[in-house]
Amino acid sequence: MTTQIQECKRCLIDANAADVVFDADGNCNYCTNMLAKLAAYQPASPDVLEAKLQQFIDAVKREGAGKQYDCIVGISGGADSAYALYLAKKHGLRPLAVHMDNGWNSELAVNNIENLVRKLGVDLYTHVVEWREYRALQQAFFDADVIDVELLYDNAMLAVNYGLAKRYGIKYILSGSNTTTEGMRVPRNYNWNKYDRKNIFAIARRNKTRVRSLPTIGVAGFVYHRLLRGTKWVPFLDYIDYNKQSCIDLLVKELGYRPYPYKHYESIFTRFYQGYLLPKKFGIDKRRLHFSSLICSGQMTRDYASELLQHSPYPDPDDLDADIDYFLKKMGWSQGDLDEYLRRAPRAHDTYASEAHWYAKLQSLQQRYIPGR
Q1: pTM of the predicted structure, to 2 decimals
Q2: How far is CA 29 from CA 4, 7, 126, 186, in A?
Q3: What share of the chain is helix, strand, coil (3-state, %, to 5)?
Q4: What sign does the dihedral 206-207-211-217 (CA atoms) show?
Q5: What is the pLDDT of residues 310-322, one digit of tens each?
Q6: Burial environment of residue 158 by CB neighbours within 10 A (0 to 12, 13 to 18, 19 or more)
Q7: How far is 7 from 128, CA to CA, in rounded Å?
Q8: What are phi and psi of 311, to 5 degrees?
Q9: Cβ-Cβ contacts under 8 Å for 258 (sequence gap 6 or more)
């Protein structure tokens, strides 16, 4: 007999999310908190929002006066970061576009990035990760059976962007992250702390793998760049009334952008990780989180999102077969290796050495003594 998992009546977060609480109406604390965030950040009128955007643009220009660039925009090839870059140029900023290539870019992502920087006329810095080292580190994470294999990429991306900000004397890093489409808090059992350098090194040592060239950042680096240097990592799209589909339509029309079926599918590994490995090994479908944010912001109906969730993240089985083949060849695995990995029980990241507790303490101190940071 199959046990029914309780699901939020308002969004799609279910009882598998850590720390979830349902109220008397069956609504969860995740969407309740996001609706409060939306109410807090959304201005009273479009004029107020435009004024806030212009005030921010002026601040970036003042800080960047006389420098080669006045801001950094990290780009993945996805729609959010692409629109952030477009918006920066539209308002007269001088961004350095930064991309990190870990060997898993889809051909479509490469083409989208090339089109963006060429048509917008911006400089692009691409940090190419040494593939053999990165593959060995991914193998160590797979062997450790921890959930957040993407910690390797996300941590390195943070390190690269902060490092370039220091090199060029830049104070503003503009990201495509935003409250409207991804403002819902990520359940702590969906991923891991992205500043946990110690965890990366501990898992690598478990496999006798050395971190030689991969850029990394820990809590000390966070303190240095954010608190001492004053580098600001800004969710740039919160300064506009961001409607994802409308912005994608604009990018398609003006820049020849080609969209992806789901969020973060510009990376072949991320597509395979979120669409296959996470559901199969960890029982997590991240579309629940992505769709729930869109439901809260009114950009997707719950009924439509629920219908999409009934279908595989791979609508075409041939695409899944192709990704499995590509993954096995790229990692040097057999089908038996993949089956064995999926059979093994997951392990918590803090089974291995971690600095997540220090980051949690730092966040607590910031909230207590530096409100609004």
Answers
A1: 0.93
A2: 20, 12, 39, 12
A3: 55, 10, 35
A4: negative
A5: 999 887 889 999 9
A6: buried
A7: 41
A8: -100, 155
A9: 108, 111, 112, 252
